[in-house]
Amino acid sequence: MKISCDISQNYFNCYSESKGVAVHRQSILKKKKPNRLNYYTEILIACLAILIISFLLTLTKDMFWWLFASLLALIDIIFLFIIIFNFLFVFTFRHKQKFKNTIILDDNGLTYTSVYNIKVNFAKEKLQALVIKKHTVTILTDTPCYFYFDINTKEKILEALKKYKYKTMIIK
Predict the structure, then answer these.
(1) Cα 83 from Cα 128, distance rounded (Å)
(2) Widest pairwise Cα distance in the chain
(3) pTM (2 decimals)?
(4) Torsion sign (Cα): 76, 82, 86, 92
(5) Which of 18, 104, 150, 167 would be 138's cystine partner, CB 3.0–4.6 Å?
């Protein structure tokens, strides 16, 4: 069954949510609950916490702590810029693909055709979980690869999993 989706309308939320699922794959699979923050929400909270701590450290009268706090704030800001540039790189890459995802779920497993018409096939046993969140449906594999789709494709993916008797864990 061929499953396609267009995530151009909600790209930021879909990407952030699925990246959060992929980053926290182990805890989601262990607890069988997708109760994790989105990727960019976690990054912003961590960066703000570090900036607040560094600001509080600058209030001390000790020169060492003041220098340490300044260095910490500088590293935090550089890290934030790296995250922003990374997102812009991924965004432009996906923009060239017109924000479209297409996979084929059948008896052979999951087949994905990449940008340069390279076909990647994952056997049924490689698919670990289907994680359903507010904006996305994320398919986790036992490799670093993951696939994400807009929530509108949820029924088609569930139908394909049932039709071809996948033993993939469904986490809502």
Answers:
(1) 28
(2) 68
(3) 0.84
(4) positive
(5) 18
